[in-house]
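Batch manifest line 548
LIGAND: zinc ion
JOB: complex structure
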Amino acid sequence: MSADVAVLGAGMHPWGKWGRSFVEYGRTAARAALADAGLDWTDVGSIVGADTVRSGYPGYVAGATFARALGWQGARVTSVYAACASGAQAIGAARAQILAGLADVVLVVGADAAPKGFFAPAGGERPDDPDWLRFRVLGATNPAYFALYARRRMAVHGDTLEDFAQVKVKNAAAGRLNPHARYRKAVTAQEVAASAVVADPLRLLDICATSDGGAALVLTSMDFARSRGVADPVRIRAVSTVTPAYPRTVLDLPDIATDSTTAADPVAGSFRSSIARAAYEEAGLGPRDLSLAEVYDLSTALELEWYEDIGLCAEGEGAKLVREGATALGGRIPVNTSGGLASFGEAVPAQAIAQVCELTWQLRGTAGERQVPGARAGITANQGLFGHGSAVVAVR
Amino acid sequence: MARTRTPVVSGWFTENAADGGGFRLLGTRCSACTAVFFPREDAYCRNPRCPGGGELAEVPLSPRGRVWSYTDGRYRPPAPYVSDPAEPWEPYTLLAVELEAEGMVVLGQGAPGVEVADLAVGTEVEVVGGVLGEDAETTWVTWQFKPVGGAG
Ligand SMILES: [Zn+2]
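JOB STATUS: finished
ARTIFACT:
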């Protein structure tokens, strides 16, 4: 008995700053995924929307908003929100419905229309919301947290600014080959070094932008895929949506402090590593089985941390991998073959879905110039505000 | 007109600790399991293995700790951070400090004059009172960190 679900379709609206409604991006991505699957919208029994919180009231109930834009046809609807992990939650909800026999065909859609500049919390006086407090009391933007991690890596592991820049160079080289990416030109280490410091030690080109974009997947039961003549579809084998373990000792967005260690000793390993571990356990494979990975490179330095967290190398050795070219296209274990957030910019509810789109194209062997030869297995990893883990393992 | 000195968040610190120690961050401590919380948790203990039945009592936190990491803010943060858009933006230093006794890492701005160049991971710092900003009626008081016996 397989717990796999099939990925029959993947689609995107290109990332950019288009100045239109997130609904339009989501609808375009959904129709692209349906066309890719060879299915009609009326074949879909359930739609799961990953919510945006920036596009006004309709964004909070994205599932029905997308269903309305595609044309009401009575499908079951689900809407989920977990910040950056919203897309993985949407995939997880879709998979559960398929495995429970509640639906054969589920459409998963996420889209965002991002604001200019720093992400900011919702307005009003809200002193009981940690996300509001970190801005009010500390002015601690997201890049400030990324910079704290980067500086700590430099102190603890000896990473250098040049190492961080190499991540950008690598991801820009892959993004240049991706028609869905927002930034499609090569970047040099000199250009990274010449960009303005946003939060010491990180520069503008070390930090991902915020973008408009949309991504969608058509997920089905394995039986349904076979009935459509797709004998060997890309399969989702694991969806990890774990929470941290107490006491959480690594500072994370949007927290002002970590847990104390007065009542309990810290557990071994980080929250991020537990996200990947749960995915590997569920999938019955490990980092050595991977052909590629898509990780959440909110900053260049954070990508290096993910290498360690998903088990591509030991703690502290992330920079060595990028120096050796192991994670570049053509390397031993390419990471962010899509170009990553460095080339896309973050469209929050779409991003984790977009990661799985890239795995799908790679595992099908249709990723064009970005193709990882003979790709058989991949993982996506990501983390949503407040403690939402997110990882997906897909295989062929 | 005299401004009122007001904590930016009430109950998170005191300028006159009960033990005579001056400015201290305030947390809460669970009497059943010894877990300490900052920002203060008054309603429930968040240790999943707490035996329960305890009380959460206010407790002053360690006056000193060591730098876990640090950065600065080169651009004006969005609201609700309060700054005068008519004035040029003055970058501030942001520290993550591991408190000695609690083993928790707490974020705070650097005291005036504390620069990134003055800091290293592991530097010993102390918590001090400072001013976050002022508006017409209020001087907003907050906590800040500065190296022990050093810069700032
Ligand atoms: Zn307790």
